[in-house]
Amino acid sequence: AYKIAKKNINILIQGETGTGKEVLARFVHAASNRADKIFIPVNCGALPENLLESELFGHEKGSFTGAGNLRRGIFEMANRGFLFLDEVHRLSFENQEKLFILLDQGCYRRMGESKGWRHVRIRLICATTEDVDQVLLKTFRRRIPVRVDIPPYGSWPLGERLQMIYHICQKEAVHIGKEI
Q1: What's the DSSP call for residue 48?
Q2: DSSP string spanning 155-172?
Q3: Roughly what angle, to the nearest 10 degrees, separates helices 49-57 and 93-105?
Q4: Which of 34, 57, 138, 164 is deepest in the core (most CB within 10 A)?
Q5: Cβ-count burial 46-77 (b if 16+ within 10 Å, e if not)
Q6: What is the pTM (predicted TM-score) of this model?
Q7: How confident is the model at residue 113 (pLDDT cuts 50, 70, 90)?
Q8: Average pLDDT over residues 140-148
Q9: Residue ranges of the alpha helices (H) in the chain?
Q10: pLDDT at position 140, please?
Q11: By the 8 A CB rule, do 46 and 88 touch?
Q12: DSSP states along 70-84
């Protein structure tokens, strides 16, 4: 994982809920040459699709009902940093295509913007619990060269599971200031 962190490539993490996908993404960020830059986590499943598009890409004033002001999107805010898209399988195919263009060419448009392109440099880490070949467009998958599969916790060797439990207990002991 350390070698991957040092390279400027996008990553797709696949694993069950609770297997540490965001923890791994934060490790990659901390070990990268962009550790001093912003890390923005976004749960794609927490917002309706039309609101998610506005959050990610931003929007121009009047681009839809209720868009009374111009809004910068998360892509713009994450420029030169990291963006972690959890539950990326929740993105519509249309927004996956827009994200493909951003990964391929480094440019995008806000919702309602028809002239010119905005340019950003983002390191993207995506995570999903689903079968990526079923839920992500092939064009989108091709732009993420590294896939990391995290096996379910129950399939780990017993020694590793015990080490993890011990580590969690030690961290909690420090956090609460008591011996466990």
Answers
A1: -
A2: GS-HHHHHHHHHHHHHHH
A3: 10
A4: 57
A5: eeeeeebbbbbbbbbeebeeebeeebebbbbe
A6: 0.81
A7: confident
A8: 86
A9: 2-6, 21-31, 49-57, 74-77, 93-105, 132-135, 138-142, 158-176
A10: 86
A11: no
A12: -B--HHHHTTTSEEE
| Alpha-carbon separation of residue 124 from 40, 48, 99, 135 (angstroms) | 10, 21, 10, 18
Per the CB < 8 A criterion, the answer to whether 117 and 109 are in contact is yes
**Could you report the per-residue pLDDT of 58-100, keeping only the tens digit for each?**
877 767 767 778 788 899 999 999 999 999 999 999 999 999 8
By C-alpha distance, which of 155, 149, 134 is closest to 13? Answer: 149
**Residue pair 52/91 in contact by the 8 Å Cβ criterion:** yes
Question: What is the phi/psi pair of residue 164, to 5°?
Answer: -65, -45
The answer to whether the beta carbons of residues 44 and 51 sit under 8 Å apart is no
Could you give the CA distance from residue 64 to residue 68 in angstroms, rounded to a whole number?
Answer: 9
Distance CA(13)–CA(167), nearest Å, equals 23
Backbone CA torsion sign across 75, 78, 79, 84: negative
Strands 82-86 and 146-150: unpaired
Name the token pair of 163.
């080490």
